[in-house]
Task: structure prediction
Amino acid sequence: MRVTVRLFARLRELAGRGDLDCECPGDAATVADVWQQLVARYPALAPYERAVSCAVNAEYARRTSPVADGDEVAFLPPVSGG
Amino acid sequence: MALPDAGALPSLTPDEVRRYSRHLILPEVGVEGQRRLKQARVLCVGAGGLGSPAAMYLAAAGVGTLGLVDFDVVDLSNLQRQLLHGTGDVGRAKLASAIDRLHAINPHVHVEPHHTALTSANALDLMRGYDVILDGTDNFPTRYLVNDACVLLRKPNAFGSIFRFEGQASVFGVEGGPCYRCLYPEPPPPGLVPSCAEAGVLGVLPGIIGTIQATETIKLLLGIGQPLIGRFLVFEALRMRFRELTLRRDPECPVCGDHPTVTALIDYEQFCGVSPAALASGPATASPGAPVPAPDITPKALRDWMAAGTPLVVVDVREPQEWDICHLPGAVLIPLGELPQRIGELNPAVPVVCQCRSGIRSARAAQFLRLQGFQDVRNLTGGILAWADEVDPTVPKY
Result:
C-alpha cells in the first residue's frame, strides 16, 4: 500500500523535501510503520521519533493509529521559536 | 471562558468612542463588545517576535489591561522582527520600550510590566489575574510551564510558535479542549530543535503568527466566532499555505486528561532536560559508559596557540551562510550535519578545536570526534561570539 507523507519544519529540511510517497508492505499498516519506512530512507529523522506529533488525513493520530492505502500521513516536530 | 455580565462593564469615553468607531459599527463587537475589551486583562508571556505584534494589536484594539512578562534587554538582532522595539531602544529593557510603544499606540491601555522570568514559583500567581494568556515564549521549558499553568488555572492559552519559515497556532487550555501536552506529550531531547537564534527566522513570520494569536484572544474575550480550539494551524510561508489538523483532548493527558498526574507545576528545566543537573546526568537513554565531554579552550588560549604556531586545525561546524558572515582565520568549514560523512578530511593525529557560534554545536562535534577516536579535541568556549568579545572586536556578532 502507498501513502502520501507530509513533513514539516526541521523534518522537511533533513529529508530535503516536504512531500513524498511511501510504500508500506502489506495491506495493513500503522503510523509507526510509515515512520520506520521514512527513517530507513532518511536516517537523520530517527532522533525525532518520540518528539514528533502525527496526523492521518489531517486528524491528530497516534503511532499505533491505522493507515490505509491512499492516506495522507503528516509528521510535525515541535517548534519553540517566539 | 465565562464572559462578564454586561451591566458590570466599564463605559466608553467620547474619545474612546471615536477611537474604536470601526469596531463599534461591527455588529459582532458593538459598544458592549468594546466595553468587554476595555474590561479585559490579557497576559503576553514574552515581548519578542510573537509578543510584539500581538501586544500592539491588542493595545490598539482597546484591551484594557495588558500584562507583559519579559526579563530581556533589546538587542540589535531583535529589530528585524520585534516591532515593539526601535533602534533607539537597543540596550533598554524590553518592557521599558514596550510600554513606550504601546502607550504611543493607545494611551488608554493600562500596561502591567512583570520584569521577571516566568517560573514554576511565580507562574500561577502571575497568571491568575488575567483572562487570556498569550504564549509568545521562545523555549520549550516555558511553553510547557505556560501550558500546564493555563490548564491548572483554567485559562485559555492563545498559543503560537515559529521556526524559520513555518509557524503553528492554536488555542489550548479551554475546558473540554486539548492542551499542548495532548499534542506533544514529551519535550524533544535538548538540542534537537534549534531556536530562532540558532536556526534563523523570517522577520515577518512572527508578525503573521502573533497577529493570529491576537485575533484568537479578541474572539475569546468577545465570545464570537469559532476559536482555534481543537484545531492546530500550521503555516508555511515559503508555500504561502495554511493547513489545519484536528485535535482532541487526550483522556490520558497527564495534565488535562481524565486522571491527571500533574496537578501542580513541576521543574520544567529538568522536564525538558536542560537544567544543569539534567545535563550533567545525561539523557535517560545514555549508557553508563557515555564519554565525558571534550575539554574546553578559551578564545584567548586559542589565540596564543595560533600565535605560537602550535599545529592544530579549527573546525567550524556552523552552516555556510553563517561562515559567510564571519569566520576565524585558517578555520575549515564542516557543518555539524556533514561531520560524520566528512570525518575523513581530518587527521586524527593533529589537535582539533571545534568552533561554532556560541559553543553548543561545537561541543557536540567535539564529543563526536572523541568517540571516533580523535585524541586531542577541544571545544572553543562561547564560540565565535566569545572570540569577537575577547580577541577580535572586528568580527561581526550575529
User: Anything to note?
Assistant: Chain A has a mean pLDDT of 94. The radius of gyration of chain A is 12 Å.
